[in-house]
Amino acid sequence: MTFDRVASAPIAPAEAELERALFDRFGRRGLDRLAIERHRDAHARDLFSKRWLHLEEWYRAPGLIRVCLRLVGMLGRARRNALTLRIVENELPIAGLDAAFDDFRLLHLTDLHVDINDVIVPALIDRLRGIDYDACVLTGDYRAKTFGEIDAAIDGMRRLRAVLADPIYAVLGNHDSIRFVPAFESFGIRALVNETVLIRRGNAALRVVGIDDAHWFRLHDIPDVAALRPRLPSLLLSHTPEPYRRAAEAGFDAMLCGHTHGGQICLPGGQPITLDAHVPRRFGRGAWRYGRMVGYTSPGAGTSIVDVRINCPPEITLHRLRAQPVG
Predict the structure, then answer these.
(1) Is the pTM of this model over 0.70?
(2) pLDDT in tens, 293-307
(3) Domains in the chain, CATH or no CATH each
């Protein structure tokens, strides 16, 4: 298949090189995602766009939220809450998992938004030191905004990567650019964009599938793992819990995701005002099950729109895999 650039107007050599690299790696779909991102960037400040009403894309929203919190005397506490990172352990039972993987520890980080301020990366680095795990998964949203420059987010992830142990697998979220992929992989984070890897322990294996964002870009491709041979226990990494039904139907045993922030600003008792996801509320935070598939939605370690949290602490999740009989 020959390479055919999607943009008709001349572009800079660096952009042409990026397009070629994305095509070589992902085929036409990589260029499709890049084209969507370019369109989003071009229209991000269009006052008459319907998307303008979405808080994530409204550049005045952070200031408005801060003013409201300051007026009720909660801004300082809400900002401190956002840096009080909890380490939460979760047992993740996986049907058919080989005993060699029992107690396998999976560090799960999501919704880091590392460029939202200057303090989140040092706080994460400090909290991550000393955690013992076997593999790390990142389920998207590394950038604070949904459009614009990516250098600050890449720099933050490079600094964070220095304290993370191999192997590290990452998927993209609705805030992320496919331009992250070559940068991440240059410093040892393996991106999974509708791709599969096998994690092995001796003769045993766990299939890990990472899909592209299913919330906004909707370029995700969930394989029918029930039909794949050999049949292996399979874990899906998705930025959002929204494709849970399709994942279960496709035969996945487990699904890890984020996106919702658990609500981030919640009512007393941790009741979210909004999850920004088309899922039942029980899928909005923590452990859940759908049919035979188990899942976990992390409320995330970072913050979106504004760097505050209320009644919803940030989380670093440590999953302990448990072998469970099939049936």
Answers:
(1) yes
(2) 999 999 999 999 899
(3) 78-324 (3.60.21.10)
